[in-house]
Specification:
The chain is of the alpha/beta class and 381 residues long. It is built from 17 helices and eight strands. Helix 3 crosses helix 4 and helix 11 packs across helix 17. The termini are far apart.
Amino acid sequence: MKPREEYRLCYPQLGNYNVPISYFVRHGLGDQYVTPPPMTKKTIELGAKYSPDFVCAPFKCMMGCYIEALEKGANVLIQTGGTCRLGYYGELHEQILNDLGYDFDMMNITIARYHNLFGLLKGMKQFAQDTNLFRILRTLPATAKMIVCMDKLEDYMRQNMGFETEDRAHEKVYQKFLAKMHDVKSAREVRLAYEQALSDMKSIPCNKPEHPVRIGIVGEYFTIMDPDSNHEVEKKFAKMGAEVHRWMNLSNSVMLCPDETSLKKLKGYLTYDIRKFPSSIWHKIQLKDAGKYAKYDMGSSSVSTVLLAEEYAKRGFDGIVHVKSFGCTPEIGAVPVLHNISRDYKVPILFLSYDTQTGDTGIETRMEAFYDMIAMRKEVQ
């Protein structure tokens, strides 16, 4: 790594999580943050052009985001890796981008394997000469609170935006909340902004039936959390008139700090507080509880997919949607298990697989047919 006069960091687009990442980089590290342009068809095509053909869609999406960010002025790219092949993608991204002639440094947290906060601080100081432990600790609470509050608001939106009388009313409140996050100075300010946003959302007029169609979304981390990668599947189902649920987000999975409501929603198998367990133990507990359908760990989010699908089925959801990228090996392994859950609980499951060539029309046609089917089925039952 060569010294630079100014470090401009960037992380690939992943829903709205760039907001807290930007906050931490600017206030915790004292660096500039380059927000990648919104992911478009051009972004995905650009990433696919310089990626191996049969690599999964998240790799291609991240590649496109990296290229656009470098063109926008970023000179340090952040790679957090993952529990599947994504753990190797940082090195491959770096090699391809170097071959394309870009001048940058890669902050690859997967390779660094920071074992504690001090190790992470040491790694960060390579790109943030003026930061210190106190500055990072002072910034972390607001960053974490921001992520948790974002996830709570998005949960509420998914379950209610399909019944609003004014189009995009929930989205307008949420965008206003995100705009406030750029200027907050503490976790308290984040909490106050969240409480105001939630209050505003609850005051939005809605025509919600007593027993709406309920759809549970399960699947692979990146594709399920990034609306551009999954063609806004949640928003589209909500607009059809469904109450959409998705447990998988950063708060509930990566950060392991779900709120009480999230825990109660999944009380069928979360009979313990997962906040007391480190991620490795939590993963083993998941596998133990999935014993009826999965004896061995299939990798990444596959065990969570099985557990969540069974829980949605137990709770009488009208349908389940499995979202994954094309070629995602762990989620491919979960597909036969989901078929068994569908058979045992008599719950329809829609399987959606995405690649860079996936078009809106085909996805929307399948979604509409699935919704019509479960809505008619619910009416008959």
